[in-house]
Amino acid sequence: GLFAYHNRILVKKSTATEMNYEFPAGHYIEKVIIPDLVVLEGGIRTKSRLLQTLNHFDQVPNRKIVFQKKIPKGGVITKIILPVGPIGIVFDDKLGLPLISMVFQGSWAERLNIPNGYFVEKLIVPNKIAIERMQCDGFEQIFNHFSDIEGRTLVLQEVRNDIPNTGATVTVSLPTGSLGVVFRCTAGYITVARVNASSPLKDTITVGYVVERFVIPGEFELVGLGKMTASTFTDTLRQFSNVPFRVLVLKQFKKEVQINNASYTNELA
Fold first, then answer.
1. First-residue to last-residue Cα distance in the chain
2. pLDDT digits (tens, 9 = 90+) for 49-100
3. How many CB atoms lie within 10 A of CB 53?
4. What are the beta bridge partners of residue 157?
5. What is the pTM of this model?
6. In whole angstroms, what is the distance from residue 162 CA to residue 125 CA?
């Protein structure tokens, strides 16, 4: 049977199912996968949440449960893959992050089982942008701007304390050609000084954010940008303006800009 243990779901003994397989005794539920729709990972906290999720998507084939021997650590992360168009969610600002305060009846949000009262930690728009820990106003602008992109992914947390109490990070896939962005160097950091009205990035990046890294996947990566000035950085952007899939990573606060050679993980692909 399934039991709540250490705030996680543990299989106490092997349980035969209608599909003629058994859950592994002594293992915890680490992940629930509803293909192309929803992923719950990090360990489900309650048996009722597990059963409600499985029952809600009982018509979806190939649902999966992933088990592990050790107790899953950290908070439960809910990933929702969104369709194109309106979703039917109302966001409110709470504790510095967007909070899902309402889900409309009959909406995509209801069909996707998006829970009320959860915080948005991250939004990923494939091949466009990923934003983390952004305040509600900026988040909603980007969320709505890319409503016509299929495969947007919301990453949700039930508990605010499970989200790092740090500033926002924006990872942008740069289009080819002119960006229409002006950078300036302030106290050794390169910041976004102006985004022109004609810029293809005018609805995606914010004045005042700090450049942490510039990446051409498979070619090179500039981290912290060292002693590079705003002028030399702009020249570098222009030099590679015809190269697709360039990535720019921006931080909300200077104090959080990494200047070491930490590896880059592309979440936009």
1. 39
2. 888 999 999 999 999 989 888 887 777 899 999 999 999 999 999 999 999 9
3. 19
4. 77, 119
5. 0.87
6. 22
Distance CA 153, CA 269 (A): 12
Amino acid at position 203, single letter: D
What is the residue whose two structure tokens read 């050790």? 70
Q: Which of 114, 86, 84 is nearest to 98 (CA)?
A: 114
For 112-129, what is the mean pLDDT?
Answer: 96
d(CA 257, CA 170): 12
Biggest CA-to-CA distance, the chain: 66
Reading the block at residue 148, the tokens are 């016509």
**What is the per-residue burial (b if ≥16 Cβ within 10 Å, else e) of 8-40?**
bbbbeeeeeeeeeeebeeebbbbbbbbeebbbb
Kindly report the backbone phi and psi dihedral angles of residue 124, in degrees, each rounded to the nearest multiple of 5, phi listed first: -120, 120
DSSP 8-state secondary structure symbol assigned to residue 75: P
